[in-house]
Design goal:
This protein has 447 residues and is α+β, with helices and mostly antiparallel strands. The chain has two domains: 316 residues, Sandwich (Jelly Rolls); 77 residues. It is 15% helix and 28% strand. Helix 6 packs across helix 7. It is globular.
Length: 447
Amino acid sequence: MSTAERVVNVFPVDPNLEPTQQKKPLHNRWHPEIPPVAQVKVNSVFRVEMIDWTGGQIKNNDSAEDMKTVNLARCHHLSGPFAVVDERGQPAQPGDLLMVEICDLGALPGHEWGYTGIFDRENGGGFLTEHFPKASKAIWDFEGIYASSRHIPGVRFAGIIHPGIVGTAPSKELLDIWNERERQLVEQGTEKMTLASVLHCRPMALLPEPKYALLGSIDPKSADFRRIASEAARTIPGRENGGNCDIKNLSRGSRVYLPVFVPGANFSIGDLHFSQGDGEVSFCGAIEMSGYAILRCQIIRQGMDRYLSPMGPTKLHVNPIFEVGPLEPRYSEYLVFEGVSVDEYGRQHYLDASVAYKRAVLNCIYYFAKFGYSPEQIYLLLSCCPCEGRISGIVDVPNACATLAVPTAIFEIDVRPKVSPTPNVRVVQVTLPQCSYDGNLATFPSR
């Protein structure tokens, strides 16, 4: 029997249908009582299909209106949960580790395209939202392993397809820990958070929101649904269960070692990306896509005690381990941009890697703008191309040092600094789909 004949599609989707019309129910929250949609046995190879993270709200067109009005309370749309059992039919148990191996990834036939976006400052925002408050969008077409965009000319690069989200269901105890600590953060407000004066993405955390919750096969009219929806955690941040970690090298051949908190593990997957830059800085920053994953699982009994070390008050305060696969684009020449923890107003911050990375990204954006690109085009590009972000120094007081390395081969023109006084070669300018910003929040003065 061939491998293709042995692969069972346990979660088919149709990207042309609404999330609530799919053959199997999706979910967009984390909760231990969301029932599994299928059971998979260790060592079996199975296929999981995924719609894009917004559930089809963003269209392949030349308007950014859908990016401006996107309903983020509906996100992410996840495939699963899947209960995992061993050869004897015994489920994974709390305290085990679940190993999820990514055997293959790809686009669904007829859907070989994706998008990168900037959210409106008052509806999602992003890492540089006060600099780029207008909703914008770029559409990417896939040509085998390569991506190019009609909205960002003169650029073509190889992608590393990967899921932004792989995670297990939390226990009720862990869910309560999440909700309490994130509630406290919101209640503290921005005035007590030094970094909030520099990073303007709001809100500070996304607390449980029953409206627009999808909870798998739980009847939306039931009392259980109302209770669970009021408790269930949003899927936006990564947490102890894995979740939305957005690790761009988590591609073919990778393995994820996830803590198990409930019987069966009940793992889910989604938020598929064709490519992403380190940090996914525009928030909707990867090349978002629908597609499929071919997976295989193993259970490591008592793996949490054997391999993980809690960093917190309970044994639940652990994090997954990721084993990156062997495949990635082979770029060898980079321009590297430095940032230190001095913000764009000239204020000194103490060893703040977020401020340093922000400065590195801004330095990079305005460098490439000198070659004819708009700053928004480069902001989108840095969110999705295979650029490498690093914390280069974290001990040399008072400045943290972060760097962003961009492969020069992705550009059709030579973008390196020149000794010659002749003007830079500039790309042919095209119009980027963009909306006006109609809000009242302060924005950084444009250059």
